[in-house]
Amino acid sequence: MSRLLYHLWLSPFSRKVRVLLTEKGLPFELKVEKTWERRTEFLAMNPAGDVPVLVEPDGTTLTDSQVIAEWIDETQPAPSLIGPDPLQRAETRRLVQWFDGKFNIEVTENLVGERVMKRFLKLGEPHAPAIRAGLANIHYHLDYIGWLAERRTWLAGDDFSLADITAASHLSCIDYIGDVPWEQHDAAKDWYARVKSRPSFRAILADHIPGLSPPSHYADLDF
Amino acid sequence: MSRLLYHLWLSPFSRKVRVLLTEKGLPFELKVEKTWERRTEFLAMNPAGDVPVLVEPDGTTLTDSQVIAEWIDETQPAPSLIGPDPLQRAETRRLVQWFDGKFNIEVTENLVGERVMKRFLKLGEPHAPAIRAGLANIHYHLDYIGWLAERRTWLAGDDFSLADITAASHLSCIDYIGDVPWEQHDAAKDWYARVKSRPSFRAILADHIPGLSPPSHYADLDF
Predict the structure, then answer these.
(1) Which among B35, B38, B91, B94 is the top mutation candidate for probing chain A, defined by the most A β-carbons within 10 Å of its own β-carbon?
(2) What distance in Å separates the CA atoms of residue B130 and residue A48, rounded to the nearest whole number?
(3) What number is the average pLDDT over the span A78-98?
(4) B222 lies in some domain
(5) pLDDT-based confidence at A210, cuts 50/70/90?
(6) Residues of chain A with C-beta less than 8 angstroms from the C-beta of B151
(7) N or C: which end of chain A has fewer CB within 10 A?
(8) Could you tell me if B58 and B106 lie in one domain?
(9) With an 8 Å Cβ cutoff, is B86 touching chain A?
(10) What are the φ/ψ torsions at residue A54 (nearest 5 degrees)?
(11) Could you say which of A60, A66, A75 has the minimum Cβ distance to residue B97?
């Protein structure tokens, strides 16, 4: 039995685990889970009903992107993508939580959530004030990414880490629908170009959702 | 310099760290941070602007309750409150995320958020449909706690863990405003009675916010 990841194409949490597994050199298969259908067998694996869900080759089932990330870091320690010591690990986790928590609520949910997921989840029409909020909020987050990237090699410090993976996973979903104002944020754009050029990001850039094409710059390494 | 925790009285995330530090036998001082005032010095410590923030005796500053919990578990491993092996740790973290994520959005924010925090944060009047949603949602979460507690000694398994601390931290905030329907959920109530009787929970039960008294059963171990 091979490793299996239940996911959705524009779920940043699923993308985070896809990139992490690839950075760790762990092969896996992908299976789309239409979470809005609330399949009984899927809810038995994950009562929270969301993706990602990882089924390890021995059948061990794990849910929640950060639970999965900590599990992989503990069971497959090299290369460490959280960090070598408690202080570095705290900084990586702080930024992971920044993007999975604050950025997700202030930006991703307002843009990808309103424009795309709401349709799939049959939650009604996109809410224009939410989209406007997302388009406004993304600027200060891109400023923060730029601020970090100008002071550090990667977002959490000297090494590429789960912080970069998490930030890039959210941004790649938003970039897929053309909502990232790269032209106004050079430092963030330079950092994202470096993430895009990593082999672990290739599969993300090759994503192509039927009926929803990305803009031409989405997969372009020199965007 | 002693260990200092910036907190708010009805912040479940702050309570989680208070109980965790006490379970670990680590002394600390509490300082209320009125996060809605957005103090410059506080934002310099934590750009996210929320509590808890922990300042260690050597000045190391940590933010986000789960980042702090992982830091404490790594720097002060005994007794482990996440678990002895990766699989148990994944289950503890899954439940921590359940309560800090799902329960928080579906219940805590709708009840404590609407009835109390909205006033402090000057976000307007409580939203009646949100309160109704919180009062409806809490039932299935109490059922889930009861379901776990009937099958395991503690929520995540044989040992008292961060999962119990996290669930009880949220419930204690809601219990402070009298919104937990204990009488309809015996198994969850029995579990919470066991948490309440732990020495680490004494300070939580002694909380008394000026102008907002808890109901008489709040601190009662035999409620």
Answers:
(1) B94
(2) 20
(3) 97
(4) no
(5) confident
(6) none
(7) N
(8) no
(9) yes
(10) -110, 125
(11) A66
**pLDDT, mean of residues B136-145:** 98
CB contact under 8 A, B71 and A89: yes
Burial (0-12, 13-18, 19+ Cβ within 10 Å), A106: middle
Report if residue B46 sits inside a domain: yes
Most B CBs within 10 Å: which of A67, A98, A105, as the mutation test of the B interface? A67
B41 within some domain:
yes
Rounded average pLDDT over A4-22: 98
Residue A55 DSSP class: E
Residue of B nearest to A92 (CA): B67
Strand partners, B6: B31, B53
User: How many domains, in total, are found in chain B?
Assistant: 2
Of B110, B171, B103, B146, the C-alpha closest to A48 is B103
Q: What's the domain range around B14?
A: 4-75
Q: Is B98 touching A (CB cutoff 8 A)? A: yes
Evaluate whether residue B80 is within a structural domain. Answer: no
Residue A93 Cα to chain centre, angstroms: 14
Q: Which residues of A touch B88 (CB under 8 A)?
A: none
User: Which residues in chain B have their CB less than 8 angstroms from residue A63's CB?
Assistant: 94
Mean pLDDT of B21-37: 96
Please report the pLDDT score of residue A117 as a whole number.
85
List the alpha helices (DSSP H) in chain A.
12-23, 40-45, 65-75, 86-97, 118-120, 128-151, 162-176, 186-196, 202-205
A158: how many CB neighbours lie within 10 A of its CB?
Answer: 10
The string of pLDDT tens digits covering residues B56-100 is 999 999 999 999 999 999 999 999 999 999 999 999 999 999 999
Interface pTM (ipTM) of the complex? 0.96
Mean pLDDT to the nearest integer, A189-218 = 95
